[in-house]
Specification:
Elements (H helix, E strand, L loop, with lengths): L1 E6 L5 E4 L6 E3 L26 H10 L3 E3 L24 E3 L4 E3 L5 H10 L3 E6 L6 H12 L5 H8 L10 E4 L16 H18 L4 E5 L11 H10 L5 E11 L3 H4 L2 H23 L6 E12 L18 H8 L18 H15 L5 E6 L6 E3 L4 E3 L3 H10 L3 E3 L2 E3 L2 E4 L2 E4 L2 E3 L2 E5 L1 E8 L4 E8 L6 E6 L7 E8 L18 E2 L4 E3 L2 E6 L3 E8 L1
Parallel strand pairs: 1-23, 3-4, 3-12, 4-7, 7-8, 8-9, 9-10, 10-11, 11-12
Antiparallel strand pairs: 1-16, 2-15, 5-6, 13-14, 15-21, 17-20, 18-19, 21-22, 22-28, 23-27, 24-25, 24-28, 26-27
Helix pairs in contact: 3-4, 3-5, 5-6, 6-8, 8-10
Protein backbone atom coordinates (compact mmCIF):
# COMPACT_ATOMS: atom_id res chain seq x y z
CA UNK A 1 0.00 0.00 0.00
CA UNK A 2 1.34 3.43 -0.96
CA UNK A 3 1.66 6.06 1.77
CA UNK A 4 1.08 9.80 2.07
CA UNK A 5 1.80 12.37 4.75
CA UNK A 6 -0.06 15.56 5.67
CA UNK A 7 1.28 18.07 8.18
CA UNK A 8 -1.17 20.52 9.74
CA UNK A 9 0.17 23.28 12.00
CA UNK A 10 -1.97 25.92 13.76
CA UNK A 11 0.53 28.60 12.67
CA UNK A 12 0.22 27.80 8.93
CA UNK A 13 -2.56 30.38 8.61
CA UNK A 14 -4.00 31.47 5.29
CA UNK A 15 -6.80 33.80 6.35
CA UNK A 16 -10.15 34.17 8.07
CA UNK A 17 -12.94 32.00 6.69
CA UNK A 18 -15.99 33.99 5.63
CA UNK A 19 -19.16 31.96 6.24
CA UNK A 20 -20.40 32.97 2.79
CA UNK A 21 -17.69 30.76 1.30
CA UNK A 22 -20.12 27.86 1.73
CA UNK A 23 -22.96 29.40 -0.25
CA UNK A 24 -25.14 28.22 -3.12
CA UNK A 25 -26.55 29.61 -6.35
CA UNK A 26 -30.17 29.69 -7.51
CA UNK A 27 -31.63 30.72 -10.87
CA UNK A 28 -35.12 30.12 -12.31
CA UNK A 29 -34.16 27.51 -14.91
CA UNK A 30 -36.75 24.85 -15.69
CA UNK A 31 -37.91 23.40 -12.37
CA UNK A 32 -35.17 24.85 -10.19
CA UNK A 33 -37.81 27.12 -8.62
CA UNK A 34 -41.18 26.53 -10.30
CA UNK A 35 -42.10 23.01 -9.19
CA UNK A 36 -39.21 22.68 -6.76
CA UNK A 37 -38.95 25.18 -3.91
CA UNK A 38 -42.27 26.74 -5.00
CA UNK A 39 -45.44 24.81 -5.78
CA UNK A 40 -48.58 26.44 -4.35
CA UNK A 41 -50.74 23.39 -5.07
CA UNK A 42 -48.46 20.92 -3.30
CA UNK A 43 -49.92 19.35 -0.11
CA UNK A 44 -46.98 20.74 1.87
CA UNK A 45 -47.13 24.26 0.44
CA UNK A 46 -46.98 27.01 3.06
CA UNK A 47 -48.88 30.30 2.99
CA UNK A 48 -46.69 31.61 0.14
CA UNK A 49 -46.58 28.40 -1.89
CA UNK A 50 -43.13 27.25 -0.75
CA UNK A 51 -42.71 23.51 -0.19
CA UNK A 52 -42.21 23.16 3.56
CA UNK A 53 -40.23 19.91 3.36
CA UNK A 54 -37.62 21.40 0.99
CA UNK A 55 -37.59 24.61 2.99
CA UNK A 56 -37.02 22.80 6.29
CA UNK A 57 -34.24 20.59 4.94
CA UNK A 58 -32.53 23.65 3.41
CA UNK A 59 -32.79 25.37 6.78
CA UNK A 60 -31.41 22.25 8.50
CA UNK A 61 -28.43 22.20 6.14
CA UNK A 62 -27.71 25.78 7.16
CA UNK A 63 -26.42 27.25 3.89
CA UNK A 64 -25.10 30.64 5.02
CA UNK A 65 -25.64 32.52 1.74
CA UNK A 66 -27.46 32.02 -1.55
CA UNK A 67 -26.99 34.07 -4.71
CA UNK A 68 -30.61 34.56 -5.75
CA UNK A 69 -31.84 35.39 -8.23
CA UNK A 70 -28.70 35.10 -10.29
CA UNK A 71 -27.40 33.85 -13.59
CA UNK A 72 -27.98 34.74 -17.24
CA UNK A 73 -31.66 35.25 -16.47
CA UNK A 74 -30.93 38.46 -14.55
CA UNK A 75 -29.45 40.29 -17.56
CA UNK A 76 -32.95 40.64 -19.02
CA UNK A 77 -35.11 40.52 -15.88
CA UNK A 78 -37.51 43.40 -15.21
CA UNK A 79 -37.69 43.26 -11.41
CA UNK A 80 -40.42 45.92 -11.27
CA UNK A 81 -42.77 43.58 -13.08
CA UNK A 82 -42.29 40.94 -10.36
CA UNK A 83 -43.68 42.90 -7.38
CA UNK A 84 -47.19 43.64 -6.14
CA UNK A 85 -50.37 41.58 -6.70
CA UNK A 86 -49.60 38.49 -8.76
CA UNK A 87 -52.58 39.00 -11.04
CA UNK A 88 -51.10 42.33 -12.12
CA UNK A 89 -47.58 41.06 -12.84
CA UNK A 90 -46.34 40.95 -16.39
CA UNK A 91 -45.10 37.84 -18.18
CA UNK A 92 -41.91 38.26 -20.21
CA UNK A 93 -39.77 36.18 -22.51
CA UNK A 94 -36.67 34.92 -20.75
CA UNK A 95 -34.21 34.93 -23.65
CA UNK A 96 -31.45 33.30 -21.59
CA UNK A 97 -33.28 29.99 -21.19
CA UNK A 98 -36.16 30.35 -23.71
CA UNK A 99 -38.86 30.38 -21.07
CA UNK A 100 -41.92 32.42 -20.26
CA UNK A 101 -41.12 34.22 -17.02
CA UNK A 102 -44.48 34.69 -15.31
CA UNK A 103 -42.94 36.44 -12.29
CA UNK A 104 -45.14 34.44 -9.92
CA UNK A 105 -41.94 34.20 -7.93
CA UNK A 106 -40.61 37.72 -7.81
CA UNK A 107 -38.31 40.07 -5.99
CA UNK A 108 -40.06 39.91 -2.61
CA UNK A 109 -40.68 36.16 -2.77
CA UNK A 110 -36.98 35.42 -3.36
CA UNK A 111 -36.03 37.47 -0.33
CA UNK A 112 -38.84 36.04 1.80
CA UNK A 113 -37.73 32.48 0.97
CA UNK A 114 -34.18 33.42 1.97
CA UNK A 115 -35.52 34.76 5.27
CA UNK A 116 -37.48 31.57 5.94
CA UNK A 117 -34.49 29.29 5.32
CA UNK A 118 -32.31 31.62 7.40
CA UNK A 119 -29.75 32.42 4.70
CA UNK A 120 -28.18 35.66 3.49
CA UNK A 121 -29.34 36.63 -0.03
CA UNK A 122 -26.75 37.82 -2.55
CA UNK A 123 -28.86 39.80 -5.01
CA UNK A 124 -27.94 40.29 -8.69
CA UNK A 125 -28.83 43.60 -10.32
CA UNK A 126 -29.51 43.70 -14.07
CA UNK A 127 -26.48 45.29 -15.75
CA UNK A 128 -27.47 43.98 -19.17
CA UNK A 129 -30.74 45.61 -20.23
CA UNK A 130 -31.10 47.32 -16.83
CA UNK A 131 -30.21 50.95 -16.17
CA UNK A 132 -28.56 52.77 -13.28
CA UNK A 133 -31.99 54.17 -12.49
CA UNK A 134 -33.42 50.63 -12.22
CA UNK A 135 -30.63 49.69 -9.82
CA UNK A 136 -31.28 52.80 -7.73
CA UNK A 137 -35.00 52.03 -7.48
CA UNK A 138 -34.34 48.36 -6.64
CA UNK A 139 -31.98 49.12 -3.76
CA UNK A 140 -34.26 51.87 -2.47
CA UNK A 141 -37.28 49.53 -2.60
CA UNK A 142 -35.32 46.78 -0.87
CA UNK A 143 -33.30 48.53 1.82
CA UNK A 144 -34.72 51.99 2.59
CA UNK A 145 -36.89 52.31 5.68
CA UNK A 146 -39.72 54.35 4.16
CA UNK A 147 -40.90 57.79 3.17
CA UNK A 148 -40.12 57.49 -0.55
CA UNK A 149 -42.18 56.19 -3.45
CA UNK A 150 -40.25 52.93 -3.79
CA UNK A 151 -39.78 52.14 -0.09
CA UNK A 152 -43.44 52.94 0.60
CA UNK A 153 -44.43 50.69 -2.31
CA UNK A 154 -42.59 47.84 -0.60
CA UNK A 155 -44.56 48.52 2.57
CA UNK A 156 -47.78 48.61 0.56
CA UNK A 157 -46.82 45.22 -0.90
CA UNK A 158 -46.72 43.72 2.60
CA UNK A 159 -43.11 44.21 3.73
CA UNK A 160 -43.11 46.88 6.40
CA UNK A 161 -39.45 46.42 7.28
CA UNK A 162 -36.63 46.65 4.73
CA UNK A 163 -35.20 43.40 3.40
CA UNK A 164 -31.72 44.73 4.21
CA UNK A 165 -29.78 42.97 1.47
CA UNK A 166 -26.11 43.51 2.23
CA UNK A 167 -24.35 42.16 -0.86
CA UNK A 168 -25.22 43.20 -4.44
CA UNK A 169 -23.86 41.56 -7.59
CA UNK A 170 -23.56 44.15 -10.35
CA UNK A 171 -24.35 42.02 -13.36
CA UNK A 172 -23.71 38.43 -14.38
CA UNK A 173 -21.06 37.07 -16.78
CA UNK A 174 -20.97 40.35 -18.68
CA UNK A 175 -17.85 39.24 -20.60
CA UNK A 176 -19.75 36.39 -22.26
CA UNK A 177 -21.02 36.69 -25.86
CA UNK A 178 -23.95 34.51 -24.78
CA UNK A 179 -25.09 37.12 -22.27
CA UNK A 180 -28.12 39.35 -22.89
CA UNK A 181 -26.65 42.79 -23.68
CA UNK A 182 -23.10 41.47 -23.39
CA UNK A 183 -20.28 43.87 -22.59
CA UNK A 184 -17.72 41.52 -24.17
CA UNK A 185 -16.53 44.18 -26.62
CA UNK A 186 -16.68 47.11 -24.20
CA UNK A 187 -15.10 46.23 -20.85
CA UNK A 188 -14.37 49.87 -20.05
CA UNK A 189 -18.00 50.78 -20.68
CA UNK A 190 -19.11 48.06 -18.28
CA UNK A 191 -16.55 49.18 -15.71
CA UNK A 192 -17.84 52.76 -15.88
CA UNK A 193 -21.45 51.60 -15.51
CA UNK A 194 -20.54 49.42 -12.52
CA UNK A 195 -18.63 52.27 -10.92
CA UNK A 196 -21.74 54.45 -11.07
CA UNK A 197 -24.04 51.64 -9.93
CA UNK A 198 -21.80 50.83 -6.97
CA UNK A 199 -21.86 54.49 -5.91
CA UNK A 200 -25.66 54.48 -6.03
CA UNK A 201 -25.95 51.29 -3.96
CA UNK A 202 -23.66 52.63 -1.24
CA UNK A 203 -25.17 56.11 -1.21
CA UNK A 204 -28.58 54.54 -0.48
CA UNK A 205 -27.17 52.13 2.11
CA UNK A 206 -23.55 52.63 3.24
CA UNK A 207 -23.50 49.17 4.84
CA UNK A 208 -23.77 47.47 1.44
CA UNK A 209 -21.02 45.69 -0.48
CA UNK A 210 -20.83 45.33 -4.25
CA UNK A 211 -19.47 42.68 -6.61
CA UNK A 212 -18.29 43.37 -10.17
CA UNK A 213 -18.52 40.58 -12.74
CA UNK A 214 -15.10 39.38 -13.86
CA UNK A 215 -14.25 36.60 -16.28
CA UNK A 216 -16.87 33.88 -16.43
CA UNK A 217 -14.33 31.35 -17.68
CA UNK A 218 -10.58 31.34 -18.28
CA UNK A 219 -11.38 29.99 -21.75
CA UNK A 220 -12.80 33.27 -23.05
CA UNK A 221 -10.52 34.94 -25.59
CA UNK A 222 -10.80 38.19 -23.59
CA UNK A 223 -9.37 36.67 -20.38
CA UNK A 224 -7.72 38.19 -18.35
CA UNK A 225 -7.33 41.54 -20.12
CA UNK A 226 -11.11 42.09 -19.83
CA UNK A 227 -10.86 42.04 -16.03
CA UNK A 228 -8.00 44.55 -16.01
CA UNK A 229 -9.95 46.99 -18.16
CA UNK A 230 -13.10 46.64 -16.05
CA UNK A 231 -11.21 47.08 -12.78
CA UNK A 232 -9.42 50.06 -14.27
CA UNK A 233 -12.76 51.91 -14.13
CA UNK A 234 -14.29 50.63 -10.88
CA UNK A 235 -11.51 49.26 -8.65
CA UNK A 236 -11.97 51.87 -5.94
CA UNK A 237 -15.79 51.63 -5.74
CA UNK A 238 -16.44 47.86 -5.62
CA UNK A 239 -15.52 45.27 -2.99
CA UNK A 240 -15.30 41.93 -4.81
CA UNK A 241 -14.46 40.56 -8.24
CA UNK A 242 -16.84 37.79 -9.31
CA UNK A 243 -15.49 34.65 -10.99
CA UNK A 244 -17.39 31.76 -12.57
CA UNK A 245 -16.11 28.47 -13.91
CA UNK A 246 -17.57 25.09 -14.86
CA UNK A 247 -14.87 22.44 -15.12
CA UNK A 248 -15.61 19.96 -17.89
CA UNK A 249 -13.74 16.66 -18.25
CA UNK A 250 -13.91 13.95 -20.94
CA UNK A 251 -16.42 11.21 -20.26
CA UNK A 252 -14.88 8.35 -18.32
CA UNK A 253 -11.69 10.26 -17.41
CA UNK A 254 -11.84 10.26 -13.61
CA UNK A 255 -8.36 11.71 -13.27
CA UNK A 256 -9.27 14.75 -15.36
CA UNK A 257 -12.52 15.29 -13.48
CA UNK A 258 -10.78 15.07 -10.10
CA UNK A 259 -8.12 17.52 -11.32
CA UNK A 260 -10.70 20.33 -11.25
CA UNK A 261 -8.91 21.93 -8.30
CA UNK A 262 -5.72 22.46 -10.34
CA UNK A 263 -7.63 24.38 -13.01
CA UNK A 264 -9.47 26.46 -10.41
CA UNK A 265 -6.18 27.09 -8.62
CA UNK A 266 -4.61 28.58 -11.76
CA UNK A 267 -7.71 30.67 -12.49
CA UNK A 268 -7.85 32.09 -8.97
CA UNK A 269 -4.12 32.87 -8.88
CA UNK A 270 -4.31 34.71 -12.20
CA UNK A 271 -7.28 36.80 -11.07
CA UNK A 272 -5.65 37.64 -7.73
CA UNK A 273 -2.60 38.81 -9.68
CA UNK A 274 -4.86 40.98 -11.89
CA UNK A 275 -6.44 42.52 -8.79
CA UNK A 276 -3.03 43.22 -7.28
CA UNK A 277 -1.80 44.82 -10.50
CA UNK A 278 -4.72 47.26 -10.30
CA UNK A 279 -4.05 47.89 -6.61
CA UNK A 280 -0.50 48.90 -7.54
CA UNK A 281 -1.76 50.93 -10.50
CA UNK A 282 -4.02 53.01 -8.27
CA UNK A 283 -1.53 52.98 -5.36
CA UNK A 284 -4.54 51.93 -3.31
CA UNK A 285 -4.48 50.56 0.24
CA UNK A 286 -7.48 48.38 -0.64
CA UNK A 287 -6.95 44.73 -1.53
CA UNK A 288 -9.68 43.39 -3.81
CA UNK A 289 -11.42 40.22 -2.63
CA UNK A 290 -12.89 37.42 -4.78
CA UNK A 291 -16.46 36.15 -4.98
CA UNK A 292 -16.52 32.77 -6.75
CA UNK A 293 -20.28 32.84 -7.04
CA UNK A 294 -20.87 30.14 -9.65
CA UNK A 295 -18.94 26.91 -10.04
CA UNK A 296 -19.57 23.35 -11.07
CA UNK A 297 -18.03 20.15 -12.46
CA UNK A 298 -19.30 17.91 -15.23
CA UNK A 299 -18.26 15.62 -18.08
CA UNK A 300 -18.84 15.96 -21.80
CA UNK A 301 -18.40 13.92 -24.97
CA UNK A 302 -15.96 15.13 -27.63
CA UNK A 303 -17.44 17.87 -29.82
CA UNK A 304 -16.20 19.42 -33.07
CA UNK A 305 -13.45 22.01 -32.59
CA UNK A 306 -12.32 24.91 -34.74
CA UNK A 307 -8.56 25.11 -35.20
CA UNK A 308 -7.10 28.39 -34.04
CA UNK A 309 -10.31 29.76 -32.54
CA UNK A 310 -9.77 28.87 -28.90
CA UNK A 311 -12.42 30.64 -26.84
CA UNK A 312 -13.48 32.72 -29.83
CA UNK A 313 -16.59 30.88 -30.97
CA UNK A 314 -20.00 31.96 -29.73
CA UNK A 315 -21.57 29.16 -27.72
CA UNK A 316 -24.66 29.31 -29.91
CA UNK A 317 -22.67 27.48 -32.61
CA UNK A 318 -22.32 24.35 -30.47
CA UNK A 319 -24.77 21.55 -31.29
CA UNK A 320 -26.34 21.54 -27.82
CA UNK A 321 -26.73 25.33 -27.75
CA UNK A 322 -28.09 25.45 -31.30
CA UNK A 323 -30.78 23.02 -30.21
CA UNK A 324 -31.48 25.19 -27.17
CA UNK A 325 -31.90 28.35 -29.26
CA UNK A 326 -34.12 26.73 -31.87
CA UNK A 327 -36.61 25.13 -29.49
CA UNK A 328 -39.92 26.87 -28.67
CA UNK A 329 -40.34 28.99 -25.55
CA UNK A 330 -41.80 26.99 -22.69
CA UNK A 331 -43.80 27.50 -19.54
CA UNK A 332 -42.40 25.95 -16.38
CA UNK A 333 -45.43 24.25 -14.89
CA UNK A 334 -44.94 23.62 -11.13
CA UNK A 335 -47.48 20.77 -11.35
CA UNK A 336 -45.33 18.98 -13.95
CA UNK A 337 -41.74 19.68 -12.96
CA UNK A 338 -38.81 18.32 -14.91
CA UNK A 339 -37.18 15.29 -13.35
CA UNK A 340 -34.09 16.38 -11.44
CA UNK A 341 -30.84 14.64 -12.37
CA UNK A 342 -29.51 12.54 -9.50
CA UNK A 343 -26.30 13.86 -8.00
CA UNK A 344 -23.78 11.03 -8.29
CA UNK A 345 -21.02 10.60 -5.73
CA UNK A 346 -18.10 11.15 -8.13
CA UNK A 347 -19.36 14.50 -9.40
CA UNK A 348 -20.00 15.62 -5.81
CA UNK A 349 -16.46 14.57 -4.89
CA UNK A 350 -15.08 16.79 -7.67
CA UNK A 351 -17.18 19.70 -6.38
CA UNK A 352 -15.82 19.06 -2.89
CA UNK A 353 -12.30 19.30 -4.29
CA UNK A 354 -13.18 22.74 -5.69
CA UNK A 355 -14.60 23.84 -2.34
CA UNK A 356 -11.35 22.77 -0.70
CA UNK A 357 -9.49 24.95 -3.22
CA UNK A 358 -11.59 27.95 -2.20
CA UNK A 359 -10.75 27.16 1.44
CA UNK A 360 -7.05 27.23 0.62
CA UNK A 361 -7.55 30.78 -0.71
CA UNK A 362 -9.63 32.02 2.22
CA UNK A 363 -7.46 35.12 2.54
CA UNK A 364 -8.81 36.41 -0.80
CA UNK A 365 -11.82 34.26 -1.73
CA UNK A 366 -14.55 35.33 0.67
CA UNK A 367 -17.72 34.21 -1.13
CA UNK A 368 -18.41 30.90 -2.86
CA UNK A 369 -21.69 29.82 -4.46
CA UNK A 370 -21.87 26.21 -5.58
CA UNK A 371 -24.28 25.94 -8.49
CA UNK A 372 -25.38 22.50 -7.27
CA UNK A 373 -25.49 23.64 -3.64
CA UNK A 374 -29.28 23.42 -3.37
CA UNK A 375 -29.47 20.25 -5.44
CA UNK A 376 -27.84 18.29 -2.64
CA UNK A 377 -31.44 18.05 -1.43
CA UNK A 378 -33.19 15.48 -3.59
CA UNK A 379 -36.94 15.52 -3.99
CA UNK A 380 -39.83 14.08 -5.93
CA UNK A 381 -43.53 14.86 -5.67
CA UNK A 382 -43.82 13.24 -2.23
CA UNK A 383 -40.40 13.08 -0.59
CA UNK A 384 -37.14 14.85 0.15
CA UNK A 385 -33.81 13.16 0.88
CA UNK A 386 -30.12 13.84 1.24
CA UNK A 387 -28.20 13.44 -1.99
CA UNK A 388 -24.58 12.29 -2.02
CA UNK A 389 -23.39 15.90 -2.10
CA UNK A 390 -25.32 16.76 1.07
CA UNK A 391 -22.94 14.61 3.11
CA UNK A 392 -19.93 16.51 1.68
CA UNK A 393 -21.33 20.04 1.79
CA UNK A 394 -22.70 19.81 5.33
CA UNK A 395 -19.36 19.17 7.16
CA UNK A 396 -17.86 22.38 5.73
CA UNK A 397 -20.86 24.38 6.89
CA UNK A 398 -20.77 22.77 10.34
CA UNK A 399 -17.06 22.51 11.08
CA UNK A 400 -15.02 24.88 8.86
CA UNK A 401 -14.75 28.06 10.93
CA UNK A 402 -12.08 30.40 12.23
CA UNK A 403 -8.98 30.50 10.04
CA UNK A 404 -7.99 28.37 7.10
CA UNK A 405 -4.72 26.46 7.52
CA UNK A 406 -2.30 25.53 4.76
CA UNK A 407 -1.59 21.77 4.79
CA UNK A 408 1.78 20.39 3.68
CA UNK A 409 1.02 17.31 1.56
CA UNK A 410 3.46 14.61 0.48
CA UNK A 411 1.71 12.02 -1.67
CA UNK A 412 2.00 9.90 -4.81
CA UNK A 413 1.15 11.84 -7.96
CA UNK A 414 -0.44 11.33 -11.37
CA UNK A 415 -0.58 13.22 -14.68
CA UNK A 416 -3.48 14.48 -16.75
CA UNK A 417 -3.16 14.89 -20.50
CA UNK A 418 -4.44 18.10 -22.04
CA UNK A 419 -7.73 17.87 -23.88
CA UNK A 420 -9.86 19.92 -26.25
CA UNK A 421 -13.52 18.94 -25.96
CA UNK A 422 -14.84 21.95 -27.90
CA UNK A 423 -13.93 25.58 -28.45
CA UNK A 424 -14.99 26.55 -24.94
CA UNK A 425 -13.81 23.58 -22.91
CA UNK A 426 -10.07 23.11 -23.27
CA UNK A 427 -7.67 22.25 -20.49
CA UNK A 428 -3.85 22.04 -20.60
CA UNK A 429 -1.87 19.08 -19.37
CA UNK A 430 -1.02 18.85 -15.67
CA UNK A 431 1.80 16.86 -14.11
CA UNK A 432 2.49 15.87 -10.50
CA UNK A 433 -1.12 16.08 -9.34
CA UNK A 434 -1.13 14.63 -5.80
CA UNK A 435 -3.62 11.85 -5.15
CA UNK A 436 -4.21 13.26 -1.69
CA UNK A 437 -5.81 16.70 -1.42
CA UNK A 438 -6.44 18.47 1.88
CA UNK A 439 -7.55 21.67 3.57
CA UNK A 440 -8.08 22.55 7.24
CA UNK A 441 -9.65 25.07 9.59
CA UNK A 442 -8.77 26.14 13.13
CA UNK A 443 -11.14 27.92 15.49
CA UNK A 444 -9.33 28.87 18.71
CA UNK A 445 -12.43 30.40 20.28
CA UNK A 446 -14.36 27.17 19.89
CA UNK A 447 -11.36 25.03 20.75
CA UNK A 448 -11.76 22.98 17.59
CA UNK A 449 -10.10 22.19 14.27
CA UNK A 450 -11.24 20.27 11.21
CA UNK A 451 -9.23 18.54 8.49
CA UNK A 452 -10.84 17.65 5.16
CA UNK A 453 -9.08 15.28 2.77
CA UNK A 454 -9.75 13.37 -0.43
CA UNK A 455 -8.03 10.36 -1.95
CA UNK A 456 -8.33 11.11 -5.66
CA UNK A 457 -6.94 7.75 -6.72
CA UNK A 458 -9.54 5.70 -8.58
CA UNK A 459 -7.38 2.57 -8.34
CA UNK A 460 -6.03 2.07 -4.83
CA UNK A 461 -6.30 2.74 -1.13
CA UNK A 462 -3.61 4.89 0.52
CA UNK A 463 -2.32 5.00 4.06
CA UNK A 464 -2.19 8.60 5.30
CA UNK A 465 -0.09 9.85 8.19
CA UNK A 466 -1.65 13.04 9.54
CA UNK A 467 0.87 14.96 11.65
CA UNK A 468 -1.10 17.12 14.11
CA UNK A 469 1.50 17.05 16.87
CA UNK A 470 1.66 20.88 16.95
CA UNK A 471 -1.94 21.08 18.18
CA UNK A 472 -0.96 20.95 21.85
CA UNK A 473 -3.86 19.90 24.02
CA UNK A 474 -5.99 18.74 21.07
CA UNK A 475 -6.96 15.21 20.18
CA UNK A 476 -9.08 13.57 17.45
CA UNK A 477 -12.78 13.59 18.33
CA UNK A 478 -14.29 12.20 15.15
CA UNK A 479 -13.42 10.78 11.75
CA UNK A 480 -16.19 10.27 9.19
CA UNK A 481 -15.69 8.73 5.77
CA UNK A 482 -17.57 8.62 2.48
CA UNK A 483 -16.40 5.78 0.22
CA UNK A 484 -19.16 3.98 -1.70
CA UNK A 485 -18.18 0.92 -3.75
CA UNK A 486 -19.60 2.49 -6.91
CA UNK A 487 -18.26 6.02 -7.53
CA UNK A 488 -21.27 6.71 -9.74
CA UNK A 489 -23.73 5.78 -7.00
CA UNK A 490 -26.47 8.21 -6.10
CA UNK A 491 -29.12 8.38 -3.41
CA UNK A 492 -32.87 8.08 -3.87
CA UNK A 493 -35.59 8.24 -1.25
CA UNK A 494 -35.82 4.43 -1.26
CA UNK A 495 -32.10 3.62 -1.44
CA UNK A 496 -29.20 5.67 -0.07
CA UNK A 497 -25.89 3.92 -0.79
CA UNK A 498 -23.90 7.12 -0.16
CA UNK A 499 -23.78 7.74 3.57
CA UNK A 500 -20.98 8.75 5.95
CA UNK A 501 -19.65 6.21 8.42
CA UNK A 502 -17.26 6.40 11.35
CA UNK A 503 -13.76 5.11 10.67
CA UNK A 504 -12.79 2.15 12.88
CA UNK A 505 -9.17 1.29 12.05
CA UNK A 506 -7.38 4.59 12.82
CA UNK A 507 -4.20 4.73 14.92
CA UNK A 508 -3.06 7.57 17.20
CA UNK A 509 0.73 7.56 17.71
CA UNK A 510 2.74 10.41 19.28
CA UNK A 511 0.75 13.23 17.76
CA UNK A 512 0.29 11.45 14.47
CA UNK A 513 -3.04 10.18 13.23
CA UNK A 514 -2.75 7.17 10.89
CA UNK A 515 -5.74 6.42 8.68
CA UNK A 516 -6.68 4.35 5.67
CA UNK A 517 -8.06 6.30 2.72
CA UNK A 518 -10.02 4.05 0.34
CA UNK A 519 -9.97 4.96 -3.34
CA UNK A 520 -12.07 8.04 -4.20
CA UNK A 521 -12.89 8.69 -0.54
CA UNK A 522 -13.73 11.85 1.40
CA UNK A 523 -12.69 12.27 5.05
CA UNK A 524 -13.53 14.72 7.82
CA UNK A 525 -11.32 14.60 10.92
CA UNK A 526 -12.32 16.73 13.90
CA UNK A 527 -9.95 17.85 16.65
CA UNK A 528 -11.14 19.08 20.03
CA UNK A 529 -9.23 20.83 22.80
Amino acid sequence: MQKAKITIHPDYRIGEIDRRLFGAFLEPIGSWIYGSIWNPRHPLADDMGFRRDILEMTKELGIPAIRMPGGNFTSGWEWKDSIGPKEERRTHLDLAWRQYETNEIGHDEYLEWARRVNTEPLYTLNMGTGSIEDALHCVEYTNHEGGTYWSDLRRKNGYEKPHKVKTWCLGNEMDGPWQIRSWEKDPRGYGIKVHEASKVVKWIDPECETIVAGSSTPNNRTYPDWDLQVLGECYESVDYLSLHYYHTAPEGNIGALMNASSVFEDFINTEIAACDVMQAHFRSPKKMMISFDEYGCNVSPQRPTTVGRFGAVDRSTYPEFSTHISRPFRYNDPDRPEAAEPGCYLNSLALTSVLMTLMRHADRVKIGCMTCGLFVIGHDEEHVWKQAGYHMFEPFIKYASGVSLRPAVEAPVYSVEGYNLNDFNQTPAYENVPYIEACASFDEKKGSAAIFLINRSWEEELEVELDISSFTGYSPSGHTVLAPEDPYAYNTYEEQPVKPFEAVDDRWENGKFILKAPKLSFHVIQLTK
